[in-house]
Amino acid sequence: MKKYIAFWSILMKDMKTYYLKPPNISWGLIFPFAWTLMFFIRSESAVNIREILPGVMALSVLFGTTSMLAVTITFERKSRSFERLLLAPISLNLLMLAKTTGAIIFGVLNALVPVFFASFFIDLSGINWTTAFFSILFIAVTSTFLGLFISVSVSEVFEAQTFSNFFRFPMIFLCGLFLPIQNLPALIRPLSYALPLTYGADILKTAINGTGFISPLISFPVLLGFSLFLFLVSTRNIQRKWIY
Length: 244
Prior knowledge:
Distance between the termini: 23 Å
Low-confidence stretches: none
Shape: globular
Structural class: mainly alpha
Helix content: over 70%
Order of helices and strands: HHHHHHHHHH
Number of helices: 10
Largest sheet: none
């Protein structure tokens, strides 16, 4: 079996089975829509909307990717359909890349929802869209691989969602999405720098408002390192726990 055919077949199967289902499409739209309205309506001026836009986009990607992957991997593991995929004549790395690509695409599309609504309230000119796109892509990749790491560590969907919240909700306050990291207590700041979302959100701030304080030349390699680390640890755990 040619590798690209196997990759495409697994990706299309997941798209039809999970991502293109009406409940998931509505969830993917409603969640960032609710976050967007909550922050945008609360804002009193156009300047505030532009300031919070990077945080809302990063939050939409984080919750969209981790939620979807927790369902797809854990549910297939529970129903034993994932074991049939493990029998396919392809490498484990290619199999997991195919399983996670759908969530990455879903996360990138989620980030566009806040941008769409923001365009009705503020002028979006002056944004470095190339840098913004790659920052969204890296946020989606690291968030997806974080969801993969969590999914491999549990056996039930509700456990995956609960475990995901253990990481996701602290990230809202620790990663500089809405509260500057410089304003956090000095004892907490090391935790912020240990989370990949900090670097992705900072690149988004640089691309949209020019207010990031970490050079993208540092943030992009750090995000690449987090991506490789989470993916390799997750595949190692699959080999150790799920392949006999």
